[in-house]
Specification:
The chain is 0% helix and 21% strand. With 136 residues, the chain is an all-beta fold. It has two domains: 38 residues, no CATH class; 85 residues, no CATH class.
Length: 136
Amino acid sequence: MYIATNHNIVGGDGLGIPHGTRGYFANSPDAGPEDYFTPNLLGGSVEFDMNLESMECGCIAAFYTVSMPAKDINGNYNAGPDGFYYCDANQVGGTFCPEFDILEANKYAIQVAPHYCDAPNENGFYHQCSRPGHCW
């Protein structure tokens, strides 16, 4: 298992992701559009520890899933501005895709938010998603 962060690939048991960055689970150090780790979580579980001690108001730490890789309307992979084929329900990387926020939190509050999308076209492209999600 590899983690892609800001174009650096690291492996290991622990991971610290600096403020303002993302980490991506990948099956290879190349982290191309077909190399992202996509587990079937149906009936499974995810376990993690997160230290929120330094996360004050106005700042959040997040752990979430998205349906990468991003695709354009024709079904071609869309590398986006960061080169990681990122997509989410808010079109941050330029492309919509389903997102499930497992944890968005600071040391005072926590939120879980599923973001649904309209059905994709025949090429796997999503035209619209629920940007705010449905918070719990």
